[in-house]
Amino acid sequence: MNWGTKAFFHSLGVVAYISFVSFLMFNAERLFGGKPDTVLAPVAFLLLLTLSAAVVGLLVLGRPIMLYLDGKKKEAVHFAATTIGFLFVEAVFIIIILALANL
């Protein structure tokens, strides 16, 4: 599998993870019931934020860092830029779908 394909699948992993977390947050009241009125609600939110930053950071930067540490600096930059480029295209695609759905 070439670098472009791997970068594409990493960016799809980010979109899938974000979609899953968004689904959970959008349906949290129905899934977990009630209003969050305890100290655990902000703790859960901050833990989710931290986990999300780690997962997305790993998907976007994990392989480029490994490549960089292996001395493949040009490939590392190319992989990171390609992954971010795919994320940009996917974000534009989703925004266009949302805009068309509201017409």
Helix content: over 70%
Low-confidence stretches: none
Biggest sheet, open or closed, and with what strands and sense? none
Structural class based on helices, strands and sheet pairing? mainly alpha
Compute the number of strand runs.
Answer: 0
Shape: flat
Order of helices and strands: HHHH
Give me the Rg, rounded: 17 Å
Strand percentage lies at under 5%
Distance between the terminal alpha carbons, to the nearest Å? 40 Å
Can you count the helices? 4
Mean pLDDT: 90
Describe this protein's structure:
With 103 residues, this protein is an all-alpha fold. The protein is 85% helix and 0% strand. It is built from four helices and no strands. It has helices at 3-26, 28-32, 40-69, 73-101. Helix 3 (40-69) crosses helix 4.
Brief account:
This protein has 103 residues and is mainly alpha-helical. It contains four helices and no strands. It has helices at 3-26, 28-32, 40-69, 73-101.
SSE topology:
Elements: H1 3-26, H2 28-32, H3 40-69, H4 73-101
Q: Which terms would index this structure?
A:
103 residues, mainly alpha
